[in-house]
Write a structure and sequence with these properties.
The structure is a homodimer. By secondary structure, chain A is an alpha/beta fold. The first copy, chain A, contains eleven helices and 13 strands. A nine-stranded mixed sheet of chain A has the order 5-4-1-8-9-10-11-12-13, sandwiched between helices. A four-stranded mixed sheet of chain A has the order 3-2-6-7. In chain A, a hairpin with a 5-residue loop joins strand 11 and strand 12. The interface between A and B is large, with 43 and 43 residues.
Chain lengths: 302, 302
């Protein structure tokens, strides 16, 4: 099955304590689509300006991503720049220029409207809803969000939560949206706000999957050196949705596996800037790290 | 096999945002010994004053703990008081009165000297070394430590690291001892300082077990409400060492299981103040929660 992915496409400038790079391919839809493409055909929805480098369009193409829903509009591509603190756990947004993104209201190509799996990567909840409303009876809808929308668009986000199957968000967002310090309480509280599944991403501490009759705790891959954390969450959710689309199953065992595959692709993402590591990533590498996840979380009464 | 446990025995006064209790049974040896007693016979080494309540001696007795090594000295029992912040993740020590603990230099009872498993719970590294030196060729030695010793007794701690099989410490201690922000780097760096195994406890995020050819990530039990975190780490390590003593095996599978049993007992500990929950804890309850740990960390290609 295929997966529809919408979100931002951006040119990023990223500074870490040791490196700085400009005009990198970024944006939630970029990371998520390439991550998902390792598992399933991707229908991408996004917008770029006429300045968007052809090599990045070719990069999507090399991953078989359907670009019928990628608009090229007069003007500049969305730009984001950010800086990470010394331990890479916190980042500061230095600038955001929406550019062509400001007036983006996509009409889905006809060929996209029956896509069974949907991942609404991080963009405003109104835009996520606008895209979702055009998909005919999707089988499983995953959405991401961010602190900005929690703070400024609480009602739109609440409406979205009633329309999706799974919300993926990070630790601080889960605490912010629920005003709970306990992540366990937070995860369970979000379940009561609509989605059947909630994934709370905890960075170096792995992630948690909540459902009414399910609690799954996934470890993080033990990376010693992270080069650039940008896009890890988008890769996680893209691979998560892509894996579900590939198997066309959404039972608990498939969701657990999807969480692990999401963690695997995210762990590769942060080994390099932008999508550089994803571009060279192979399916055997994904499978190898999946096996490592099994080894590092396995135990049984001896 | 039996396990020798030394550490502090204390009367604690503990304040959380919602409750305050005084003169509770506490101390690293108390928590660790009772936790270990669910798995193996315990030889306890410690000191109390003449004020130490008889009911607490009876509590140890009810858990079959051998008290030949528990000195009752003229004077007052060691006292500690602390206060937890609103989210229970940080605590402040309000007072410490060493009392009889100040001059404690135990001579092991003859019956203790061949104990094959040893857990040196949190006391000064000199005292840990003094006890360890009296044990004849122990099979497996586990030690805990704390930020105070890392800051004030680095050399004694370094010497101890060369004499033990496994160091158990928490996240902030691992970072402090190695001056590494990455826990993965920290864990591996401590391995190079002596112990064959390192366990890094991460509270609500579970724990990590490191060895040369082993990396194991254990989840935390999803507790919604923690009543008093005091002693959780001691219970973890006590149950960990007790399980190894019970099975008399220290292969990787046994260590993984020991980490899970440690996590199970710690998760019960924090449900009540002092050792109140451990006193009512049953072996079926331990096994039930062990099964839950399996469920919450299990995945497999579907």
């Amino acid at each position: 099955m295929s997966v529809l992915i919408t979100g931002s496409v951006a040119l990023d400038s990223v500074k870490t304590p040791v490196e700085e790079h400009r005009d990198l391919l970024g944006g939630s839809a970029s990371y998520a689509s390439v991550a998902a493409s390792f598992f399933a055909p991707v229908n991408m929805v996004g917008i770029v300006g006429t300045d968007f480098p052809k090599k990045y369009v070719e990069l999507y193409g090399a991953h078989g991503i359907n670009l019928d829903g990628l608009q090229i509009a007069d003007g500049q591509t969305f730009r984001w720049s950010g800086e990470y603190e010394w331990d890479l756990n916190n980042r500061r947004t230095l600038s955001v220029c929406l550019n062509v993104f400001e007036t983006f209201r996509p009409d889905l190509p006809a060929g996209y409207k029956k896509t069974p799996y949907v991942f609404l990567a991080n963009i405003s909840p109104q835009l996520q809803m606008h895209v979702l409303a055009q998909v005919e009876r999707p089988k499983f809808v995953v959405a991401d969000t961010m602190n900005l929308w929690i703070e400024t668009q609480r009602d739109a986000l609440a409406a979205l939560l009633g329309k999706i199957d799974c919300l993926v968000l990070n630790e601080s967002e889960a605490r912010e949206i629920t005003k709970q310090t306990s992540l366990i309480k937070a995860g369970r509280q979000i379940l009561r706000q609509g989605p059947k599944y909630v994934v709370v991403k905890k960075g170096e501490h792995g992630c948690l999957l909540f459902a009414d009759e399910l609690f799954f705790s996934a470890p993080a891959y033990p990376l010693e050196d992270i080069r650039d954390p940008t896009g890890a969450g988008d890769c996680f959710a893209g691979a998560f949705a892509g894996y579900l689309a590939k198997t066309n199953r959404t039972d608990h065992d498939s969701l657990r596996n999807a969480v692990i595959y999401g963690s695997v692709v995210a762990s590769y993402c942060v080994e390099a800037f932008s999508l550089d590591r994803l571009v060279t990533l192979t399916r055997p590498e994904i499978d190898q790290r999946y096996q490592f996840f099994k080894l590092m979380s396995h135990f049984e009464v001896g």
